[in-house]
């Protein structure tokens, strides 16, 4: 599926992944070592090697609607052990990237909400302001926090700032976000 | 005026589709000195060759150019055709208009012009060709076989049975190789030593085979038909002529705790030892690094620290003062059959291209063993008498997990290739385990099951269908010590579920690699080897038992991972090559060798320095009174491979390749 | 020695004790920390999860700030920050196309000449000095927990053996404490799922801590704020599900600080959820230290 020297653009999922990550998903020979060592495998409907298999088979619909790529912790255990140096962690990063750009609603609610709240914090302040993050997250999920998080206890230990501190270079950070958005839009328009 | 015949081949569509062969023929026919020009569909076919012979006869040709494929394909074919028509074979040459033209260009016009140019160049060269005769050199009709495993033994027996002498060199104290360590062999479950030891004895007793065990090749010089090999006979510290193999010395030796190499570290041996009871020759060796006597001597002790073996020996065969000796043999052919070693998962690796398996504990977890160690456990003559027991505590394991592809098919660890035999011996291991431990359960983690030999697939299926082995498709992520057990973290990709097994023992099917020191040996023989150290064959499809060095052949696992039947077949293949080589009293070689013009040679010896084969010698030119006039270069026709490096290097242009002189080459280039 | 210091978002808030203890030990060990002026998010967590280019660009901003400040080396105590900065450094050095995209996004020229280091590597290099200055914490048994991003992915972290690291154990040995042998040292704690998928964090953390405890550890030593939070703040949730733990989680810098006899209050101990009070008392009165026999 090489694109070098030919005018044909590979529009398959494998081709898209190669453009996003520089990696060749065909290198995966389905040995399962990644899945065997994945800490989230018991919670994922699709284990890492199965995600890569579906990518090889160009199964867009199945993969992109599945929560499994979002359950990846990027612990990099798979990448460290993969015998064929496929870099599954990076490929799964790539899958998430593709989904988030095409249709953020496809990501599981709480994870999507977390990511959007987190990114909003960075874009606005340059750093994460935890209370703002929590409020944003709660707002997006409309669900209560896990009851294990004891906000007063956290506050008492001085682990939460009550007001955000904006960095001086906020503008620069905002421009970085915008530039990345524009780059993504250009890639999208030129499939 | 020359009378050259030009034949242009279509090669079916290969050339004909891109090059206008008729046009090439007609263009060449216009050249001065070309007496005949034609084109034909398949020059290499019988009718094609007939065309050549007819043209030579009818047109009285004194040279032939066949514009077709690469000379590597059919130069011999066309030269034979010319010779049969009475023309000197070396007046026939090929112009490559296929690999160098039609196969690499698309535009018909341009390709045709290029084909004409290429053929024209060769025509101009052939106009200046001289008739040449093959060179004849004498052959020493004795073979050297390096390596006394099953492949080396087979090669030696076949060559000796064919009536030629063999020198068989083996670096270990006994021949037999790894096959002697195996318990039973697939797919028949024959007892390995039972089928091997008769061969070992036959090799030892064969009048045509001189066995030099506990010896190594020290240096090699010479060329095909005329090698001179210096062999180091390592000192056993035992006089072979006196020892009768009674074994009393070993009984007497006080140091009984040395890990035995033959038992792969699972058993012990003494300092004076024979590696296994059926060793051939059955003569012990003293391991000087562990022997109390020699350690005492090394420390400078005045009194001998121990000499119990010497005292126990009834034939005064123990000789502490024995030294390594050297012997030189002249042979005409060499067979390399040095076999394999297993990859280890340890942190320390023999080179920086290989990595160990940290995820499996780097070999520090007890009861994680490799395939050869399992063979020793299963072997009736092994350290546990054939019982499968955990090395750590001697308990019988009820759950054994076998892992395939350890090192193999793992580019991250430095080995991309498949070791071919492991799927089969793991299936065998599960069966041996089941036969010995009826309530034991074997689990095999695999990626594929490669069972391509005769009866192999049926054998592998038997392990699953009849002997109850559970095969799980998936590579294991991690091995962990968990109390007395080993936790195995795997995944069955076929059913799609992760699983964790608490194993009592884990057996790793580790990759096959060539023996240590193979690079040094290959360099002594001037044979090439690949990045892993495997000896390179001359052609992977059509010349599997030859190397690119004339006279050196290769058999068995030192060329690539391979099982016993293939090693034996390959060994017999080398024997047939050797016997074929020895079937003539003299060896015929291509005359395209370098020749020095002694009148012009200034004796600078740049050619000697650059010759990759060591073919340039020094020759003294004396006058009639014996006074030395000068020393000139002289090319040994038997060694020269015709590479032309000397010709390119000589500052005074006094050495040239026959058939490729400067005059010929410049004529060809000018014609392009 | 002078080092650029990238604290990252968590060291100023949820992992304040890491920042405190790091600064406390820096002085005695002769390390001068210069915080990157106006640093911003390193690009880990959500940026990394959704937009690779964004994560690299955000990290690159901080590297460019360090360069502007004249620093040749930056140390990021948070393992995730370390990983993102090291990734940006590596990728921008090897991927011309990406470098061409990122450079214009930055508000200053950027040569990509800053080296990135993690806190364990720093302390490992100072092990000799620690040993010479420390009052040995003899008898204290700790489990060194590496987590993920200190050693993986191997091509980026390029630090220690990804399957059998020993750098933290070396630092622990320098403090005089004993590092226990245990299996879960490289298993993931649940990383960024602390808020969005707590159940996973509780499951993973529990397996880690139960193994540490069964191996005889009295405390677990970490070098990453996410790991600390997941193992410390969430420990009560693990116990609510039946685990019996009571394992204080220490930052490596806090352990070093104890060995250097710095007052625990200066090391941020009171901010932990799982109290280390028992441990601190035992260290203060070593004669009275009764150690449980290690199991397994």
What features would you describe in this structure?
The complex is a heterotrimer of chains A (191), B (672) and C (296). Chain A is globular, with a radius of gyration of 19 Å. Chain A contains ten helices and no strands. By secondary structure, chain A is mostly helical. The longest helix of chain A has 20 residues, at 170-189. In chain A, helix 1 (13-21) packs across helix 6, helix 7 (109-125) packs antiparallel against helix 8 (130-141) and helix 7 (109-125) crosses helix 10 (170-189). Chain B has 672 residues and is of the alpha/beta class. In chain C, the strands form two sheets. Chain C has a four-stranded parallel beta sheet. Chain C has a four-stranded parallel beta sheet with strand order 6-5-7-8, with helices on both faces. By secondary structure, chain C is α/β, with parallel strands linked by helices. The termini of chain C are far apart. Chains in contact: A-B, A-C, B-C.
Binned strand content of chain B: 15-25%
Based on Cα principal axes, name the global outline of chain B: globular
Mean pLDDT of chain B: 96
Poorly predicted regions of chain A: 1-5
**Largest contact between protein chains?**
A-C, 62 and 61 residues
CATH architecture of the largest domain in chain B: 3-Layer(bba) Sandwich
Describe the strand arrangement of the main beta sheet of chain B, using strand numbers. Answer: 10-7-6-18-29
- The assigned structural class of chain A equals mainly alpha
Low-confidence stretches of chain B: none
Name of the level-1 CATH class of the largest domain in chain B:
Alpha Beta
Report on the biggest sheet of chain B.
Answer: 5 strands, parallel
Major sheet details of chain A: none
Number of helices of chain A: 10
Oligomeric form? heterotrimer
CATH topology of the largest domain in chain B: FAD/NAD(P)-binding domain
State the distance separating the first and last CA atoms of chain A.
15 Å
The count of β-strands of chain A is: 0
């Amino acid at each position: 599926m090489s694109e070098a020297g030919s005018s044909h653009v590979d529009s398959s999922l494998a081709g898209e992944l190669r453009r996003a990550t520089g990696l060749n998903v065909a290198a995966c020979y389905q040995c399962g070592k990644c899945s065997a060592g994945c800490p989230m495998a018991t919670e994922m409907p699709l284990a890492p090697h199965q995600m890569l298999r579906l990518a090889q088979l160009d199964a867009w619909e199945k993969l992109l609607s599945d929560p499994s790529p979002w359950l990846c912790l990027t612990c990099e255990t798979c990448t460290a052990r993969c015998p064929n140096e496929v870099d599954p962690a990076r490929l799964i990063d790539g899958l998430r990237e593709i989904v988030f750009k095409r249709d953020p609603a496809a990501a599981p609610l709480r994870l999507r909400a977390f990511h959007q709240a987190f990114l909003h914090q960075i874009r606005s302040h340059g750093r994460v302001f935890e209370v703002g993050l929590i409020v944003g997250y709660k707002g997006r999920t409309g669900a209560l926090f896990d009851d294990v998080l004891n906000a007063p206890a956290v506050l008492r230990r001085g682990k939460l700032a009550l007001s955000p501190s904006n960095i001086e270079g906020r503008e620069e950070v905002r421009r970085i976000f915008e530039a990345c958005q524009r780059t993504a839009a250009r890639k999208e328009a030129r499939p | 005026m020359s009378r050259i015949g030009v034949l242009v081949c279509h090669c079916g569509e290969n050339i004909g589709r891109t090059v206008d062969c008729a046009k090439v023929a007609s263009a060449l026919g216009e050249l001065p000195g070309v007496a005949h020009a034609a084109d034909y569909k398949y020059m290499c076919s019988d009718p094609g060759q007939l065309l050549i012979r007819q043209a030579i006869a009818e047109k009285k040709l004194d040279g032939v150019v066949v514009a077709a494929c690469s000379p590597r394909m059919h130069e011999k074919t066309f030269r034979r055709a010319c010779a049969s028509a009475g023309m000197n074979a070396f007046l026939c040459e090929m112009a490559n208009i296929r690999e160098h033209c039609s196969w690499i260009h698309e535009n018909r016009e341009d390709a045709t012009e290029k084909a004409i140019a290429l053929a024209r160049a060769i025509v101009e060269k052939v106009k200046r060709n001289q008739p040449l005769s093959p060179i004849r050199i004498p052959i020493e009709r004795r073979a050297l076989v390096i390596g006394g495993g099953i492949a080396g033994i087979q090669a030696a027996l076949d060559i000796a049975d064919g009536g030629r002498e063999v020198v068989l060199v083996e670096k270990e104290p006994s021949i037999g190789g790894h096959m002697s360590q195996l318990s039973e062999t697939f797919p028949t479950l024959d007892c390995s030593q039972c089928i091997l030891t008769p061969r070992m004895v036959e090799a030892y007793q064969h009048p045509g085979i001189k066995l030099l065990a506990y010896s190594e090749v020290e240096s090699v010089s010479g060329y095909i038909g005329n090698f001179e090999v210096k062999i180091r006979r390592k000192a056993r510290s035992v006089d072979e002529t006196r020892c009768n193999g009674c074994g009393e010395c070993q009984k007497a030796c006080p140091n009984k705790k040395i890990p035995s190499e033959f038992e792969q570290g699972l058993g012990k041996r003494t300092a004076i030892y024979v590696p296994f009871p059926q060793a051939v020759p059955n003569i012990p060796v003293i391991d000087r690094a562990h022997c109390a006597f020699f350690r005492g001597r090394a420390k400078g002790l005045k009194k001998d620290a121990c000499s119990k073996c010497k005292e126990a020996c009834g034939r005064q065969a123990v000789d502490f003062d024995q030294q390594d000796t050297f012997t030189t043999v002249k042979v005409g052919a060499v067979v390399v059959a040095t076999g394999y070693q297993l990859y280890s998962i340890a942190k320390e690796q023999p080179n920086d291209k290989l990595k160990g398996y940290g995820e499996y504990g780097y070999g520090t977890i007890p009861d994680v063993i490799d395939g050869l160690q399992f063979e020793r456990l299963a072997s009736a003559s092994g350290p546990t008498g054939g019982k499968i027991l955990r090395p750590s505590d001697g308990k019988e394991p009820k759950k054994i997990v076998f892992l395939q592809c350890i090192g193999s098919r793992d580019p991250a660890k430095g080995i991309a290739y498949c070791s071919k035999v492991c799927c089969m011996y793991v299936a065998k291991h599960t069966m041996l385990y089941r036969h010995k431990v009826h309530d034991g359960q074997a689990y095999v983690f695999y990626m594929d099951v490669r069972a391509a030999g005769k009866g192999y697939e049926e054998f592998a299926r038997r392990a699953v269908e009849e002997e109850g082995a559970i095969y799980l498709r998936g590579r294991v992520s991690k091995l962990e010590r968990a109390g007395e057990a080993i936790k195995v973290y795997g995944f069955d990709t076929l059913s799609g579920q992760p699983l964790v097994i608490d194993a009592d023992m884990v057996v790793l099917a580790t990759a096959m690699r060539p023996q240590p020191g193979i690079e040094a040996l290959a360099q002594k023989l001037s044979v090439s080897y690949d990045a892993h150290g495997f000896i390179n064959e001359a052609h992977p499809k059509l010349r599997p038992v030859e190397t690119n060095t004339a006279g050196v052949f290769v058999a068995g696992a030192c060329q690539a991972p391979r099982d016993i039947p293939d090693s034996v077949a390959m060994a017999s293949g080398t024997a047939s090559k050797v016997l074929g080589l020895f079937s003539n009293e003299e060896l015929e070689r291509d005359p395209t060798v370098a020749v020095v013009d002694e009148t012009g040679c200034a004796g600078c010896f740049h050619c000697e320095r650059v010759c990759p084969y060591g073919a340039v010698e020094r020759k003294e030119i004396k006058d009639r009174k014996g006074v030395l006039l000068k020393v000139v270069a002289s090319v040994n026709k038997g060694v020269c491979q015709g590479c032309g490096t000397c010709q390119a290097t000589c500052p005074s242009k006094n050495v040239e390749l026959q058939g490729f002189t400067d005059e010929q080459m410049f004529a060809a280039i000018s014609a392009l | 020695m002078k080092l650029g210091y990238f604290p990252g978002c968590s060291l100023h808030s949820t992992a304040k004790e890491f920042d405190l203890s790091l600064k406390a030990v820096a002085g005695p060990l002769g390390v001068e920390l210069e915080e990157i002026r106006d640093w911003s998010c390193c690009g880990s967590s959500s940026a990394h999860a959704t937009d690779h280019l964004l994560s690299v660009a955000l990290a690159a901003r901080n590297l460019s700030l360090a360069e502007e400040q004249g620093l040749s080396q930056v140390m990021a105590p948070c393992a995730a920050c370390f990983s993102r900065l090291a990734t940006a450094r590596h990728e921008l050095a090897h991927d011309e196309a990406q470098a061409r995209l990122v450079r214009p996004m930055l508000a200053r020229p950027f040569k990509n000449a800053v080296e990135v280091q993690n806190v364990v590597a720093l302390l490992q290099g100072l092990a000799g000095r620690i040993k010479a200055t420390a009052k040995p914490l003899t008898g204290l048994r700790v489990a060194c927990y590496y987590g993920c991003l200190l050693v993986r992915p191997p091509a980026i972290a390029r630090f220690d053996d990804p399957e059998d690291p020993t750098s933290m154990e070396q630092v622990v040995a320098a403090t005089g404490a004993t590092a226990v042998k245990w299996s879960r040292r490289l298993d993931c704690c649940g990383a960024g799922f602390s808020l969005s998928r707590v159940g996973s964090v509780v499951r993973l953390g529990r397996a880690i801590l139960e193994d540490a405890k069964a191996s005889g550890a009295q405390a677990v030593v970490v070098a990453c704020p996410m790991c600390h939070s997941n193992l410390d703040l969430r420990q009560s949730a693990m116990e609510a599900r039946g685990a019996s733990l009571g394992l204080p989680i220490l930052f490596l810098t806090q352990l070093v600080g104890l060995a250097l006899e710095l007052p625990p209050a200066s090391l941020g101990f009171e901010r932990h959820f799982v109290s280390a009070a028992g441990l601190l008392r035992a260290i203060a009165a070593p004669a009275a230290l009764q150690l449980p026999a290690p199991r397994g």
